């Protein structure tokens, strides 16, 4: 059964306003945040300069400093990348296609489409990638404003096919994650904590070395699903259980136990990532009925962390 | 049947309550419930609260019950019968008076014509509504000719089989039959209208009949008729023998010219040949003597429109004499009176005093007259009003010096002396009398008293068991006139009355059938279908939210 993705519930003008407001809202911030800047950090060496307080201590060239002596420290300077590469990896496993009326995959697709189109409007590059199921594991590369209209159909092509595969699809990212790229992983992080999860964690860890901005965006629908479980007897069905379901007598203690298990599961995955240089953002579903389009529009417009992607220093 | 429905309903609810009542819920976090302990208490626990929460069960159950009720209604009410139409019950008079000739045909022929014409008219009045008809003849009984017919032609064909019969007319049969119909439902032909075709006036109850519309067609026209109204026998009170026959003749309208009554005896000899003359009244009384046993034929000439009252044949024979069980040794009086000895079915038993008596009228005869007379004894008590004392001279009786009788229990003294001697006694139930003795037929006071007492007792006892009538009337069991069986039913010969009809066939309109009810199964079915459509619509548009 395929998931039909709805089109983005915000207009192009909304996205353009979003980009302008993002640039006004944020200032330069210390290292560790991805900022597009003319003079900053890239892999292309430019020059050595004397260390001044405030420079990133990691960029001190100790060998050259030793040669110069005089107790002076030398710092490497790099040539900044002119264009942004935004890589968006979407988890399209069965759990992302729940809840049926407010599917996490739908909201993830909207987030991906919004970020991708804003990026493309700025003349930058977007790579759309399906996180699991390497058998169909393509990565769509879009660049420039002309490709902004191709985002939605590419997303449909990537996500419409349902698959129970838990094999992580990392191969397409080998040459699609340039230094200083931003890598957004949109998932609910309910996947099995097996070897595949370790591979992903390792990749996230290594990606941080190239000054890439890694964002793990957790789409957490548990509050909403929990609100639909008053006390009583239930046959729980869904991904990861047999078709017969689990017959459970739910009480408040039971739900707290489940919530703890979910938290522990996600924490376990985060602990798998050796380096902690990533950002973990959470979009929580409301604990009541809501309209997904309204939820996305309001949440996207108010999330100050996502819009840092489009900040530029004059 | 309702118990079956109730039981089925209960079974459905029990099965529903017995089903595992786990609410199905699909979650993205389902895997995190896998290790939780399974719910055991929730399995198949019969909790009364569950059916109340199950919205789908109750609409479906209600739909099912309505469908079952519809099926039940179809079988029980047999709702194929029409509810509005014309059901015509045609009742045709076939009594003796319908043989009266008028306008060149009998009233029976005229009635058949009218019935045929009117049933066609009634069918036309039904228009597109269902029509049925029933044909019945009436006189002294109801006879069914056609129980139900959907076409007037069938009725008309069966009218030809109807003929008048030499019987009287009992209108109470019609009235009771029409009123009884309101309590019944004739599934073959529900009756809405009644058509009566007769030569009698429409009675008042027809106009007041509330259960059905009655149309009364009187086909009679006044015609002249001279006929025998009654025949009565004058009998010897002691022998029962017919001594005379009294005739009562009546004329309706104008008498014929030169009317005559002739009576011939068993030898054919005319014993009465009389030209009838009419004065101010219309009744003529006459009689003729009966000298010998045999057939006597009474004939009125000339014949007229109504023939059943123009002649009768009377048989006079020994069967009409008094039959007595005589058990006294002295049989001279018995033979002298000409009684018939009959121990099987006597009208009177004559026994010696002291005999065992039964329920038949019994005369117990003592032997006081054989005993020597005593001194004069005064009467102390007499039963005033007793027939046994008719014409008795008490002074003469006292001078006889009679002894007393020993009377059995149950008898009442009628005449008792000062010394409490009982000379006469009687019993009312069963009738019996005690007399001092048989008549002596002497010329003295004893002879007179004994004759008077004896025949007083006999007359009193014989009146308790009357003789058979001279004749009987024809009946449905014996409809044909014959010897001593006459078709002289009251009013059948009264042919001079004008017709009085009531109602009009042209006023017949399709009518809801009394006793039939509208079928209810379509209502049940419609409600079930509506509920089903509503439930499905809510589910389609409401989806899981509604469920």
Structure notes:
The complex is a heterodimer of chains A (314) and B (547). Chain A has helices at 12-25, 62-68, 104-121, 151-159, 195-207, 222-227, 252-272, 292-302, and strands at residues 44-50, 74-79, 85-90, 125-130, 139-143, 182-187, 213-220, 232-237, 246-250, 278-284. Chain A is of the alpha/beta class. In chain A, the strands form three sheets. Chain A has a six-stranded mixed beta sheet, sandwiched between helices. The longest helix of chain A has 21 residues, at 252-272. The radius of gyration of chain A is 22 Å and the shape is globular. Chain B has helices at 2-18, 49-53, 57-77, 107-125, 152-159, 171-181, 204-208, 332-337, 394-399, 445-462, 521-542; strands spanning 23-26, 84-93, 101-102, 105-106, 131-138, 142-149, 193-198, 213-218, 225-235, 242-252, 260-264, 270-275, 283-289, 294-301, 311-316, 323-326, 340-341, 348-352, 362-365, 379-382, 412-417, 422-427, 432-435, 472-473, 485-486, 511-512. In chain B, β5 (131-138) and β6 form a beta hairpin. In chain B, α1 (2-18) runs antiparallel to α3 (57-77), α3 runs antiparallel to α11 and α4 runs antiparallel to α5 (152-159). Residues 41-54 and 77-82 of chain B have low confidence and may be disordered. The interface between A and B is medium-sized, with 35 and 22 residues.
Low-confidence stretches of chain B: 41-54, 77-82
Structural class of chain B: alpha/beta
Question: What's the overall geometry of chain A?
Answer: globular
Query: What's the mean pLDDT score of chain B?
Result: 83
Rg on CA atoms of chain B, Å = 42 Å
Record field, number of beta strands of chain B = 26
Oligomerization? heterodimer
Biggest sheet statistics of chain A: 6 strands, mixed
Q: Order of helices and strands of chain A, N to C?
A: HEHEEHEEHEHEHEEHEH
Biggest sheet, spatial arrangement of strands of chain A: 5-4-3-6-7-10
Record keyword descriptors for this entry.
heterodimer; A: 314 residues; alpha/beta; six-stranded mixed sheet; two-stranded antiparallel sheet; 10 strands; 32% helix; 20% strand; B: 547 residues; eight-stranded mixed sheet; 11 helices; 25% helix
